[in-house]
From TrEMBL:
Residues making up the signal peptide according to the UniProt record: 1-22
GO molecular function: antioxidant activity; oxidoreductase activity
Name of the protein: Peroxiredoxin
A Pfam family that the UniProt record links to this protein: AhpC-TSA
Domain Thioredoxin: residue ranges: 33-190
PROSITE patterns cross-referenced by the UniProt entry: THIOREDOXIN_2 (PS51352)
Keywords, alphabetical: Signal
UniProt cross-references to SUPFAM superfamilies, sorted A to Z: Thioredoxin-like
Length: 208
């Protein structure tokens, strides 16, 4: 009887250990990138019909990756601020790369042709890429538009340094007193730690 109890106990411990290992191993695939993770490159179609990868920017120190779209009022509210981020930080080595993750069958306003029209209307200064197969936003773990990931080049890897919102007031840029993305990039450029590494992204859910 004692030996049976020992066997049952060992089997239970093995089962629990196996479950824990699987949970750890699947954590990134379930939720996307965490702070410190290395982001993989991608190759997506730009509004000028070229294909863009992060490797196309050998001189960049990092990137401001923003998942955004045409129809979402939160994304529209942030468009001028996204342009301003690119204009300020591109010359310092942190260009904006915008990605539309939405399925245009769910929202025709987010079609590739409409992306071209929106970019021309707003005079976007950054690439506006189409995640047509919807394979990139799940890798990152993006759930909203807009949803921002600040990456820094470290030893040939692109390390995630910030995830979340652009600032703390989507309604009024002048009333935003916590400029999360700007503060993160400023800190990285100064060789300092990012003061706030994660925030909750505020926006529309990504449409699959």
């Amino acid at each position: 009887m004692k030996s049976i109890r020992i066997i049952v106990a060992v089997a239970f411990m093995v089962l629990i250990s196996s479950f824990a290992i699987n949970q750890v191993g699947n954590s990134n695939s379930d939720s996307g990138y965490a702070i410190g993770d290395a982001a993989t490159d991608f190759k997506l179609r730009n509004i000028d019909d070229s294909f863009v990868s992060l490797s196309d920017y050998p001189e960049a120190k990092g990137f401001i990756i923003i998942f955004t779209c045409n129809h979402c009022p939160y994304s529209v509210a942030y468009e001028d601020r996204i342009i301003a981020l690119d204009q300020k930080y591109k010359s310092q080595g942190y260009p904006v790369v915008a990605i539309n993750p939405n399925n245009p069958k769910a929202y025709p306003e987010d079609s590739f042709e409409k992306m071209k029209e929106r970019a021309a209307s707003k005079q976007f200064t950054f690439p506006y890429l189409f995640d047509e197969d919807q394979t990139i936003y799940p890798q990152y773990g993006a759930t909203k538009t807009p949803h921002v990931y600040v990456l820094k080049k470290e030893n040939k890897a692109l390390r995630v340094k910030y995830i979340g919102a652009i600032d703390n007031n989507y309604k009024d840029a002048d009333k935003a007193d916590q400029k999360y993305v700007g503060n993160a990039v400023d800190a990285l450029l100064s060789g300092k730690a990012v003061p706030v590494e994660t925030t909750r992204a505020i926006g529309c859910s990504i449409k699959s």
